[in-house]
């Protein structure tokens, strides 16, 4: 019974601390979450071929092709390299297509070569420019300015010998479709636009959907998936990532050109069903029903052999022929009711999660605030360590000068308890961050987690409870010391006899001049820094869902 009474105060302190951490974790979790996608797109046929009632067009391989390396001036002191591929011997007045890069690509000589050459062999002149990289970084992207730059390349293509300016359009992939959305809204005279793997929604919304899909594929613990709203609802401005909120939907509401949308059903990063429906709706609001949608058994880049983007993967076997047939048919003047093939066709897509509509932050509102939270614990613990070493050195100097032993500055066992909970919280924080990094690496590779790796998250949460209990012992001891001092002498003696307080340790501490917790401002500062540093580490664990059950 006496042991149980002694555990009352530590247990109360543990429950209070656990409630504080769980409450903080709840406040750091936004009200929204990534929901499963409920709508379904049903292709009318699995055949992706495209044909017009106006008759057949020049098939792929009809012409030999010629490449020309040119320079395009974007600004008075800025020129870029570009490659023009054209059909040799094709009649004048032919269609032309400008290629717009997606994220991660920039060199005309390293991307789109197979696509552009195939189009040229079907009578379509193509221009692939380098992406302007002096104004494009991981942290800063201006899509309107990029549209201006691609517009200068478009002007060159329209004036190329043999090209009919009234039959010129765009091919854009992924992030590049945001750029092309601006261009088509600004220039209704563009003849067509091809949107391959378009993200459709603002970057943070699309990424919330994509990360959820990736974590679902690898079998990540539900608690880790719940962290997505915490991260993607934040303000990214401290890193200069304002482009994450670029919204192309207002531009697509002005989409009046014949449009071809291509998605790979093996692409987990794009809203393959939700996005197609959105663009169709936006185009219809602009009075445009000449929109064709195709789904291929391919990845994000319309290539086969892997769900991931890898070098040297072949294009889906029907892809280039369908592009060429559609462009040439549009150039012939095919209207919305002039197609003999369905508007919606191809493999059956299966979008797992929907891109959210609202992504407000929780208590931690920005990347900068998260960085401060992450750094606070280690910084406070480092300061406590430096302070402790400084005090130890000062004490050693005093002993050497006076040849006398200094009285104890920490209560019995306080120093050991203090550093045990500090080290435990710091190591656990490192372990959780390492686990998150492992999850991220598996997600990028779409590599399933092992059963042991999944269960490890439960183990880390259990260790968080143990570390919290350890951190609660110090405030429990402070509460006991305060209650002992506040109690009248007779009540204190009765309480000690009843086992509410530690009679023997208190007596021993008094005999040796030990304080209940600490003596001297320096030692109090060290104690406070170390405990608050451990608490800050535990708050980071709360952010990552360690106290969510």
Automatic annotation (TrEMBL):
What's a single GO MF annotation on this record? carboxylic ester hydrolase activity
Segments for region (Disordered): 39-66
Per the record, where are the segments of Polar residues compositional bias?
Answer: 43-55
Q: Keyword annotations for this protein?
A: Membrane, Transmembrane, Transmembrane helix
Q: Which residues cross the membrane?
A: 367-393, 414-444, 456-476, 524-547
Name of protein: Alpha/beta hydrolase family protein
Higher taxonomy: Bacteria, Bacillati, Actinomycetota, Actinomycetes, Bifidobacteriales
